[in-house]
Give the backbone structure.
Amino acid sequence: MAELTVGVRELKSQLSKYLRQVKAGRTVVITEHGKAVAQLSPAEQTVEEKLEAMRRAGLIRWNGKKLKPMKPVAKVKEGYSVAQLIIEDRR
């Protein structure tokens, strides 16, 4: 969807109208004297909402149970900290 651009005065007088547009997925750019100063965007979905939407779309199957914890795959070299390994890897 395309962005909407609106001045502060109009936004204040018709806030409900623009909030409906944001809820529908549009982004509203707010301007002051012709310059963009802010942006209203739809709120992010929670992880649970995203997973449920994927399940409904048939992209994933999940029985609702929690996964069993896995053992760590990586091991830290003896005498090193994780921070030291990251610094070493960046060189």
